[in-house]
Amino acid sequence: MSCDPHPIVQWELTRLCDQHCRGCPTGASEQRDPNELSTYEAYKTIDQIAALRPREVIITGGDPLEREDVYQVIDYARRRGLDPALVLTATEELTFDAIAKLVRNGLTRAVFSVNQPATPVQSALHFAVSAGLRIEVNTLVLRNNVDDLDAIAALIRSFGAERWNVHFLVPVGASRELPMLTAEEIERVFAVLEEIRVREGIVIRTVEAPHYRRFRVQRILESRLDDHEDTSSRDVLESALDGVRSFLYVSHAGDVRPSEFAPHSAGNVRYRDLGVIYRGSDLFVALRDPDNLHGRCGQCEFRILCGGSRARAYAMTGDLFGADPLCAYIPGAAIS
Questions:
Q1: Which SS3 state, helix, strand or coil, does residue 85 take?
Q2: 38: which residues sit within 8 A by CB, 6+ positions away?
Q3: How far apart are CA 319 and CA 328, in angstroms?
Q4: Which of 89, 120, 151, 316 could form a disulfide with 63 if both were Cys (CB 3.0 to 4.6 A apart)?
């Protein structure tokens, strides 16, 4: 598969966070990692990201507001032509003044985590909306909130969120203790999400669940609509295909990985240019080739569209190119 010249870039600005969230998958810590990129190195990283002309940039943490230079980082990213989304955490640092200062420094998009209908982040959401920020919402779907998706969608609608990023668990670190869904339960979640997407008009992006694209295409195939009927099915197919995007993750220490949940580093921005790593490293080149997949993912007719979660395959089986254990699809079923 050819290299997408404009990947989605997620950059972990820091791991520092004081939230003590149960099952935190990112390894957030109360102590700053001495290996964290300095302000100067952060500027150089922004230069390298800008050179890629990425489709999207997401700055995350830990809690990015724990870095005093986050405002300068946003300002510099904007001056380099980027429009980063900042993932904000409901801490004491997240005040209206902080949000207003971020806006003054050029922030236009903020991302908030909402995992329950009643959430402490609602005040911050009000702050962000009143400050003129465009809003996205992250939700990690687990067994203890799977029945709340409709209520969460209603909350998202009330704040005018532009996108709902629905995350599916990759069991790493402390997140191994969280109540993970089964493959069959995830298929049912896909059906719920599709109903919500159609009913509410919410833009949904799944994270670590590329098989949602397969699910949507299957729905089109099952509808058996011909070209003379409602073109909405064609729009769904095009949007599903549009979801096939390359992704890269830059850690707080500069390591470049295919996912925040995969420990494999393809290089470090301190020592090698990000574009060179993304386009030419052995790891990214291998991951772009669907012929390297094996097991059910390797046999699947949707492997180019989907490819499975490589991070979850590794976390649960130890095989980066093996089958995604949380996909229930049997290869060949769509055309049988």
A1: strand
A2: none
A3: 18
A4: 89
Token pair for residue 211? 């098989």
Residue pair 56/242 in contact by the 8 Å Cβ criterion = no
Contact yes or no for 265/255 (Cβ under 8 A): yes
Model confidence, pTM? 0.92
Q: Tens digits of per-residue pLDDT, 227-267?
A: 544 545 555 555 555 555 699 999 999 999 999 999 999 99
Name, in order, each residue with C-beta under 8 angstroms of 154's C-beta and a sequence gap of 6 or more.
Answer: 117
How many angstroms separate the CA atoms of 166 and 14, rounded?
A: 23
Distance from the Cα of residue 75 to its chain's centroid: 23
Q: What tens digit of pLDDT does each residue of 134-156 get?
A: 999 999 999 999 999 999 999 99
Q: Give the whole-angstrom CA distance, residue 152 versus residue 164.
A: 10
**Closest Cα to residue 258, out of 234, 236, 296, 285?**
285
Residues 6+ apart with CB under 8 A from 289: 1
E strand or H helix that includes residue 322:
none
216-to-8, 75, 317 alpha-carbon distances in Å? 22, 38, 26
Nearest-angstrom CA–CA distance, 204 and 243:
10
SS (H, E, C) 240-258: HHHCCCCEEEECCCCEEEC
H-only helix segments in 201-287:
211-223, 232-242, 274-280, 282-287
Q: What is the DSSP letter of 228?
A: T
Question: Which string of b and e fits 113-149 if b means at least 16 CB within 10 Å?
Answer: bbbeeebebbebbebbbebebbbbbbbbbbeebeebb
Q: Could you tell me which of 167, 136, 144 has the C-alpha nearest to residue 26?
A: 167
CB atoms within 10 A of CB 259: 22
Separation CA 80–CA 49 (nearest Å): 9
Decide: residue 277, CB within 10 A, 0-12 exposed, 13-18 middle, 19+ buried: buried
Beta bridge partners of 58: 10, 85
DSSP-derived pairing of the beta strands 256-257 and 247-250: antiparallel
- 192, 208, 188: which is closest to 200 by C-alpha? 192
Tokens of 5: 């010249």
- State CA 68 to chain mean position distance: 25
